[in-house]
Design brief:
The chain has 205 residues and is an alpha+beta fold. 32% of the residues are buried. The protein is globular and about 50 Å long. The protein has three domains: 14-46; 54-129, Beta-grasp domain (Ubiquitin-like (UB roll)); 138-202, [2Fe-2S]-binding domain (DNA polymerase, domain 1, Orthogonal Bundle). The chain has a five-stranded mixed sheet with strand order 2-1-5-3-4, sandwiched between helices. 39% of the residues lie in helices and 12% in strands. The longest helix is centred in the N-terminal third of the chain and has 23 residues, at 14-36.
Length: 205
């Protein structure tokens, strides 16, 4: 019978491999523990919040709100259930469709994948915050003119993504629009109207 500890083709026995893997894991943990112990970063990382709700402040559409949310609450949940800003839609609830797109400091993010507590001092802009002084944002007007919404579930996310694009690039190409909306999923397939609306709105900026 061949020796159970016989080396394989790589020259390393199974026992030696397992032993080495164990030492590597233990060594990594020891290094992490030794380096992090006693540091402020470690203290912050190990600080536990919850399971009860905690008080936070959030700047949404230019107004600061005081909220009491569970640590697990997403930004989408806080907007919809705590602030009644239901324009932000939750469809897939796992970051696949981008219907829940809002801005954090003018950067589009998926609200269903962002914890409310992680927002911090960043400014949140929702679909309700695009219109100013009773006037629709050019992209909102264009969506109406070009019939760029059907069932409407993806529309707020589409608008937030395309509005961000034309705010940053007032002269986008069709490829720019497609890239900006690459994460927005429309089950009705109204993409051509969305593209037309975005290009039309850009000309009004």
């Amino acid at each position: 019978m061949e020796d159970n500890h016989k080396k394989n083709k790589s020259g390393i026995s199974r026992r030696a491999f397992i032993r080495g893997a164990g030492l590597t894991t233990a060594g990594t943990l020891a290094i992490q523990t030794g380096v992090m112990a006693g540091t402020s970063e470690a203290d912050k990382a190990t600080k536990e919040l919850g399971p009860n709700a905690v008080n936070i402040s959030m700047n949404v559409n230019g107004r600061v709100y005081k909220l009491n949310v569970e640590p697990r609450a997403t930004l989408a949940k806080a907007l919809r259930e705590e602030l009644q800003l239901t324009g932000t839609k939750v469809v897939c609830d796992r970051g696949s469709c981008s219907a829940c797109t809002v801005w954090l400091d003018n950067t589009p993010v998926n609200a269903c994948m962002t914890f409310a507590m992680d927002v911090g001092e960043k400014k949140v802009t929702t679909i309700e915050g695009l219109a100013k002084n009773g006037e629709l944002h050019p992209i909102q007007e264009a969506f109406i003119e070009h019939d760029a919404s059907q069932c409407g579930f993806c529309t707020p996310g589409m608008i937030m993504s395309t509005a961000s694009l034309i705010n940053q690039n007032p002269n986008p190409s069709i490829d720019d629009v497609k890239h900006a909306t690459r994460g927005n999923y429309c089950r009705c397939g109204t993409y051509p109207h969305v593209f037309q609306a975005t290009l039309a709105a850009a000309k009004k900026i």
